Amino acid sequence: MLGRAITIHWFRQDLRLSDNPALTKSVSEGKVIPVYILDDENVRNRAMGGASRWWLHHSLDALNKAMGGNLNLYRGNAETILKDIANRHSIKAVYWNRCYEPWRILRDARIKEALKKEGIEAQSFNGSLLWEPWEIKKDDGTPYRVFTPFYRKGCLNASAPRKPLIKPKQLDAVRDESALALDDLNLLPSIRWDKQLEPYWKIGEEPAHDRLYQFLEEGITHYKQGRDFPDKPYVSRLSPHLHFGEISPHQVWHAARTYGDDPNIDHFCSELGWREFSYHLLYRFPELPNNNLQAKFDQFPWRSDKEALKCWQRGQTGYPIVDAGMRELWQTGYMHNRIRMIVGSFLVKNLLIDWRQGERWFWDCLVDADLANNSASWQWVAGCGVDAAPYFRIFNPITQGQKFDPEGKYTRRFVPELSNLPDKYLFCPWEAPKLVLEQAGVILGKTYSEPIVDVSCSRARALESFSRLKENVE
DNA sequence: TAGCTCGTTGGACAA
DNA sequence: TTTGTCCAACGAGCT
């Protein structure tokens, strides 16, 4: 390999400099060409959603600035582009951190093979999971299907997550003249709806760490109970940073662990365990994003109701807690976890609309849209996944609102047309006396929707459909 | 090995 | 008003 002195670090879902195993390896070998490739060609029907593209634009911008403007950007087929760079420079190796989406696993295996054929070393590292999905398995070698034993027996008994690596002291970066400008990636929408997301987020590696430490200082001591209240600052909101790899789960895990050993911290770490579980499921069951894990659900009589789907997407179902959630999603690119369950249950159980419709909408709107987490969670809500919510667990959007947003602050923030309605009727405005509605300036059907389904009738309908499913199998 | 207990997130209803 | 029970069924893990 005489004369070949340069390595490529291929950035993917690891848009950070610290705790980056592949980058550390590259830097240790001398000059590095840092590369990011927007590979839309290999994705097929899973193109990144609009909100994710917006986040990615800003995350690449932040990473590029952190590297003194030396990030090389490309758009197109990753294999072709990597080979092209290798042909124009004396490249001895390409290093990257692994991704686990099925299409990426196949593509990366092909690329590894192709590079090796050209005499270029290709090596991948673990930069985004605490435990590799193939490492955690039951004693008989088959994959876990239930979270608790997966986490307690599989993960916690395996070797502890490695300590985070420090940021390389010096990065001897090489610019490639064929690289594109950030705007050439066309990640921002032509109609600038993304402007409304801006006030809610600070994007990049440094803001991700600020967010983590703010949460550890102010939120984690209330996590176990407080995480259920969407108005409270007791969730980490690290999900988009983790998805794009601006921070690694190892950094989060170890930082949380240094804050002590109490049930709140254990609970927060177990949520990282859920992230691991989703990746484990996606790896073991690559059809997770598209097919019911329980085959009996293939017979389920989902309703096709475009009008109802549209009302749900726009936050016009007439159920204030559902509408608040859907509007939070649209306005901020995010939705609180408790509310995700409520709107998910409403779509799947009250409207009887296929979970995949909900999954796709979330995919397009969430800044933290993540194939593993999103599809595993939707299958959980629908009850068709492994270790899923039982079919009779149907969230009541009225009582859930009263229970988890008792002062109505969250709901009033995103459904301002109801802000003058007293707490008593906030989650069921149709039950308010005429005078109360009048005084609050609410005209049902005009200023705010009438409920698009009756919650108890649709609950009974769902229970019946789900129980028929059981009869069909027997 | 068979039997037993437990399982992230709920709701309705009866007592 | 609050509390207990039931709404299935099965995989995982323990004894």
Structure description:
This protein is of the alpha/beta class and 474 residues long. The chain has 3 domains: 6-127, HUPs (Rossmann fold, 3-Layer(aba) Sandwich); 129-164 and 205-284, Serine Threonine Protein Phosphatase 5, Tetratricopeptide repeat (Alpha Horseshoe); 295-473, DNA Cyclobutane Dipyrimidine Photolyase, subunit A, domain 3 (Orthogonal Bundle). Helix content is 46%, strand content 6%. It contains 20 helices and 5 strands. The chain has a 5-stranded parallel beta sheet, sandwiched between helices. The protein is globular. The structure holds a DNA duplex (15 and 15 nucleotides).
Q: Any guess at the CATH architecture of the largest domain? A: Orthogonal Bundle
Mean pLDDT: 93
In CATH terms, the superfamily of the largest domain is DNA Cyclobutane Dipyrimidine Photolyase, subunit A, domain 3
Radius of gyration from the CA trace?
24 Å
Strand order of the largest sheet: 3-2-1-4-5
How far the N terminus sits from the C terminus, by CA atoms, comes to 65 Å
Largest sheet: 5 strands, parallel
The fraction of residues in strands falls at 5-15%
For the secondary structure, the number of strands is: 5
CATH topology value of the largest domain: DNA Cyclobutane Dipyrimidine Photolyase, subunit A, domain 3
Coarse shape: globular
CATH class descriptor of the largest domain: Mainly Alpha
- How do the SSEs run, as a string of H and E? EHEHEHEHEHHHHHHHHHHHHHHHH
Uncertain runs: none
The assigned structural class equals: alpha/beta
